[in-house]
Specification:
Helices cover 37% and strands 15% of the residues. Strands 1-9-8-5-4-2-3 form a seven-stranded mixed beta sheet, with helices on both faces. A four-stranded antiparallel beta sheet has the order 10-12-14-13. It has a three-stranded antiparallel beta sheet with strand order 7-6-11, with no helix packed on it. Helix 2 packs parallel to helix 8.
Length: 380
């Protein structure tokens, strides 16, 4: 494994996590149990969500949420509008639930779905809009909610990269019918693996609890299944780590925000060459990672990618256009050029981590490494 100085995530399990892990071991039960119930309650309370339903991953949170729509009049084969640029799970969860992703291009200034393009993508088969708060930056959710109201579409927020991000003082994941979260190692709250669904709708919460457990009916009849479901439950070992992550949330968020703001400041002199993503009006970005896009759309990101990797900075591209730059979705029939902004970001964008255990010296090193690519005589 490459000895990265700067990686996307780092886990250190402390006393709280070990206590909850031992509680599970002492109960001789490590599947979904008391730790999961405590994690759900604490997560909902921390962020002001009415209900929280834990799942085995952020992807499973998406699959379960999409499958819940089938109990609300949505039919298999109906469409869900979703951004062309996003992590692959956003499209996979739609397909896994038997629905069809209807892709819409994004805004280069936000990396998020372009609300001006949504209504043109709506057809009689469109039943929902899945937005993504990409790289922790809240999308223009109020405008999208209004589109949803006009067309009777459910709005679901993929907040996997946006724990604690706010818009107008209100936390993401609380605007739409459901919010989706991931607790993978790179995220603000980490449980190793794991995910969560937030909702203010009790019926949706109960549907999601059923679907994550094979579609099981609540009540006395254990093997009674009312709907198609999945084995998407979180286990008590993951919840133990998640409970500690939740306890540490404010410190983690603050440390990462400091790193994010420091990188922005240090790289400001390169804004003629790079698009840097800043907080918009009345907006607080979740410091999930540090994204950047080359301003020269004819230039490939590959050179900068290799340059940073050679200096021990783990890099990933900025997803690219799922329907046209990833062969997994070629069966949907889209053509290159259908999503010019997403495709451009796929060619010219990358991101790297800024996790809470990095030091100020690490952040300075990351900035100097980026600078040295554009100013070759500067060598960190």
């Amino acid at each position: 494994m490459t000895p990265y100085r700067i990686s996307f995530g780092h886990i250190e399990i402390g006393e709280t996590g070990r206590r909850y892990l031992n509680d599970a071991l002492n109960r001789n039960w490590i599947s979904e149990g008391e730790n999961v119930r405590q994690f759900e309650g604490a997560f909902a309370e921390k962020f002001g969500y009415r209900y929280a339903v834990a799942t085995s991953s952020g992807t499973d949170a998406g699959i379960v949420a999409m499958a819940a729509l089938l109990e609300r009049g949505v039919k298999r084969g109906d469409e869900v509008i979703t951004p062309a640029l996003a992590f692959v799970a956003t499209a996979n969860c739609i397909l896994a639930a038997g629905l069809i992703p209807k892709f819409v291009d994004v805004d280069i200034d936000t990396l998020n779905i372009d609300p001006d393009l949504i209504e043109a993508a709506i057809t009689p088969k469109t039943k929902a809009i899945q937005v993504v708060h990409t790289m922790g930056k809240p999308c223009t959710i109020q405008e999208i909610l209004e589109i949803g109201r006009r067309h009777n579409l459910v709005v679901i927020e993929d907040s996997c990269e946006a724990h604690g991000a706010t818009l107008g003082g209100k936390v993401v994941g609380s605007f739409g019918a459901m919010g989706l979260f991931s607790f993978y190692a790179a995220h603000i709250i980490c449980s190793g693996e794991g995910g969560m669904i937030s909702t203010r709708d009790l019926e949706l919460a109960e549907l999601c609890r059923s679907i994550r457990s094979h579609g099981r009916r609540g009540g006395q009849l254990y093997f009674a299944f009312d709907r198609v479901g999945f084995n998407s439950k979180m286990n008590d070992l993951e919840a133990a780590i998640g409970l500690e992550g939740l306890e540490m949330f404010d410190w983690v968020f603050s440390a990462r925000r400091r790193h994010l703001l420091r990188l922005r400041e240090l790289l400001t002199p390169l804004e003629d060459a790079l698009i840097l993503y800043r907080d918009g009006p009345d907006e607080v970005i979740c410091p999930h990672a540090f994204p950047l896009v080359l301003r020269d759309e004819k230039q490939s990101i590959e050179g900068l990618y290799r340059h940073l990797e050679s200096r021990g900075i783990q890099c990933k591209t900025l997803f690219g256009s799922l329907p046209t730059q990833h062969s997994a979705f070629s069966f949907l029939g889209y053509r290159e050029g259908d999503f010019p902004v997403a495709e451009r970001i796929g060619r010219t964008g990358l991101h790297f981590g800024l996790h809470q255990y990095l030091t100020d010296a690490d952040i300075d090193y990351a900035a100097e490494s980026v600078q040295s690519y554009f100013v070759p005589n500067l060598r960190p």
